[in-house]
Amino acid sequence: MNGKSRFIVASEYLMMLHQGIYSILIGAILPMMRVSCGLSYDVSGFIVSAMNIGQVAGGLAAGFLALKLGIKTSNVFAYILVTAGLLISLMTGSAIPLIIAFCLVGAGRGISSNYGNYLMNAVPANTSFLLNAFHTCFAAGAVIAPLIVMACTSRSSSNWKTPLFIVTIYAAAVAVCFIFQDLKDIAPMTGSRANRSLAFLKEKIFVMIVLIMFCYQAIECTILGWMTSYYVDTKIVSEASSQLFTSILWGAVLAGRLIFTVISRKLRSKAIIKYLSVLVLISLILLLLSRSYAMLLISTICIGLALSGMYANIVASAGTLFLDYALSMSVYFTIICLGGTIWPIIVGFMAEHFNIRTGIGTLIVPAAAMLILCIIFDRGHCKDSPAACSD
Question: Which CATH number is 187's domain given?
């Protein structure tokens, strides 16, 4: 890669690190936010999902923005939305403004994530390696987030807005980095076929990837938003230890993604996601059965490792599909984000009317569905698109 490409990759990695920090940070401060603002589990579920609702809108708009404004301008706009949303969250403690704020953050995330994945495919290099490293940055940010919360709230949980201030400054810095990106040598998001063609909807590879990612997003976004609350409310560990457990969870994800940057070069992507989907289901069952500190620690690490290699290997399985169709990435993000929008609300509803363990227990449904889909996917039910299905 030349200097321009390295700066593009570096700035996108900084963006993904930031996304990891604020995505986990919101879930990490949720127990304190819920108490401070007097929020119910139901309302908290909508707050968790607000970012995903915004992400759906952002994902849908990303392709059109890229066609009209170009990736660079759209990317800067995306992080202006993120910064604005975080600023609003700093200035309010009411449910509706918080939901609006995190919708804006989610919209910016949906747009910038879309372009980040596209740029990792467009930069001339090992795509699978770049994507794994790209999403490793998210895991690194996720590990850091609970530690920031611990440091800021160690004396008083009323300081839960201090971490939000830190990530707001970071967001503004990322927007500045995007201004200096040079994308002249990067192919525009126009695709090699008709710009607005929706023919990819007939591609079996696209359908399979979307269904698997829908289930994965349901699981991941619920883990993002609710795991700290699960640790606190089940009372297996203390409130302080819950932040440490959240950090351990994402430390396992980070370790797993570092491992998969190597494994992805040697094993078929579809085989990797099949085996990992088995581990996801087993790990969730262990988590729900956990009644001791040790059992909770083991299940937490297993969940982290199980989630670590899924995303990048699923995207890598698409081959050139996202490069061939201008709108494919936007439609893909829009549909899969619905899983991450719906399930945290379901968990909040079940937690409010039953308990948090029952709420998290609903994740068995998308986990089982994901396993079945990955088995079908690995058996090669993509005969009409052999080039895209090749590992």
Answer: 1.20.1250.20
